Amino acid sequence: MKQIIEKLKSNYKLLLIVLVIGTGVGVLLGSSINTSTHQQINTSNNHQHADEASGEGKAEEDQTWTCSMHPQIKQDEPGQCPICGMDLIPLSSTESDDEQIDPDHIQMTASAKKLADIQTTVVRRRSPKKTLYLQGKVHPDERRISELTARFGGRIEKLFISFTGQNVKKGEKLATIYSPELVTAQRELLEAAKAGKKQSALFTAAKAKLKLWDLNENQINNILEQEEPIVYFDVRSPISGTVMHRNVSVGEYVKEGQHLFKVMDLTHVWVMFDAYESDLSWISVGDPVNFSVKALPGKKFKGEVSYIDPFINKKSRVAKIRFEMENPGMKLKPEMFVQGKLHSSLTRNSKKLLIPKTSVLWTGKRSIVYIKVPDADKPVFEYREIELGPETGDSYVVAEGLSEGEKIVTNGVFKIDAAAQLAGKPSMMNPGGGQASTGHNHGQKDMEMEESHDKTVKIDKSQIDSQFRNQLTAFYKTYLGMKDAFVASDAEKVNNRANKLQKKLDEIDMSLLKGDAHMQWMDHLNAMKTQLTAIASTNDLKKQRQAFIDFNPALYKAVEQFGLSGETAYYQYCPMANSNEGAYWLSNEEQIRNPYYGDQMLTCGEVRKVIKE
Length: 613
Known about the structure:
Elements lengths: L1 H60 L3 E2 L7 E2 L13 E2 L15 E2 L2 H6 L3 E4 L1 E3 L2 E12 L4 E5 L4 E6 L7 E2 L4 E6 L1 H16 L4 H13 L4 H10 L5 E5 L4 E6 L6 E2 L4 E6 L3 E9 L11 E6 L6 E5 L2 E2 L9 E9 L10 E9 L6 E5 L4 E2 L4 E6 L7 E13 L2 E6 L6 E5 L1 H10 L21 H10 L12 H22 L3 H17 L7 H22 L4 H22 L6 E6 L2 H4 L2 E5 L18 E6 L2
Antiparallel strand pairs: 1-2, 1-3, 4-25, 5-27, 6-22, 7-16, 7-21, 8-15, 9-11, 9-14, 10-13, 11-12, 13-15, 16-20, 17-18, 17-21, 19-20, 22-26, 23-24, 24-25, 25-26, 28-29, 28-30
Helix pairs in contact: 3-4, 8-9, 8-11, 9-10, 10-11
């Protein structure tokens, strides 16, 4: 019995050991199963997330981005063009919605509009205002000039004016004349007076003769009272002023009608400005003018336009604008150069539609804008051709094509136009629509259209003196210095070079040209003078570059027509200058050094034409 009990105890211990081991194995197996199940769930979730991310990435990859100037560039994400640095635009983000809008409209997604930095403004009526910078000179008042001529022949016995420029008062003696003819006429008067009333007709005729010779009633009465002729007669000044011309000397014999003296009253003068044809619509009688005189630095003058010349000078192609002013102390002297500033409004009592210059794509023949279509779910823009009126600083007057209240694109116009070209819709280069070319042409089509619309007039070389060509070459070399200052983005240096260029332009002798050549030069001269004045009158680099844009076409035409001596000029073009409208400049080297962007985009551009001697 004792042995059985011992055997049971031994088996019980073994059973406990088996139970403990079994429990442990069960725990381990359960943990392994749970871990495996959890990993499977996570793996399933990870696969699901990866699939979702893959689908999202695929959706993003469906959007293609391209450059408006280099359509051959295509990328899967937004960024900048590797060629010109311009922001990329979406290529096909609106194709799915094109069937729901007008076929000629261009639609963009909200994100594409934001990336393209599209900005709009409402077209409003305002009073067009403009500031004109005028050049002119001081002139004497023509109503205060007196020409003294000999009323009778004789000899200059005495001369009281010893030099030109001498000031005289009204009635002051200028010279004394001895005239045998006048003495004889006085004797005839005395003989007629002695004859009495029977010869009254003869007396009247003799008296009238003396009056025609500028003798007054008092002088005639003195002759009759003294019963002796006056041998010497004084020439007196009819006005107070300055003797500007003295045409006689002591002892000189003069004939009837001969010019003796010219006297001017300079206490009141005229200031005459030159106004070009394009500026005349902005000028009216009564407009205020502020001006300064180079000879009187720091001194400011004010006046109002009193007269506008009704004729255009056929040589200079300008009209004279006059205003009058008092000249105490005679500080203003005839022929002094003056620089004026005239603030003018195109209309006094009515307002015009005005739009910013940045909203217009101008091809030379057509003016293009983009209108935001109202009440559209997504940004939709309409291509429209308009007719422009006068320029007003940073704006244009709209003559036709727009209505008040419409929304016009003011920033990003070129990007919308590029998207329209890529979509084959009406655009600046394709007004009738159709797929645009995808080559690197930098606006070559637009260039061809401008050249066909406005070709340079050919000039007979025999009308151009070689000396004129030398002077134009010297002007061109000075221009290169101003161009380099633009490349360096140095506004102060640009201002300095512009002043030097103005002097060089004044040194060019247009009398060396004949016939049509002379008239062509006058057209270029007027344009260049206006823009040089604008560049030289400010240190604002942005305004200087804007004037430089308009200056270059005139210089290019002059260089092409008249030629340069021993120089090769490269006519170069940047499509992104002038708010993506494009702009030109001249250079003496083929390598592009952009004057409109400087270091920001130094090599953007291309050579359009080479002008050789």
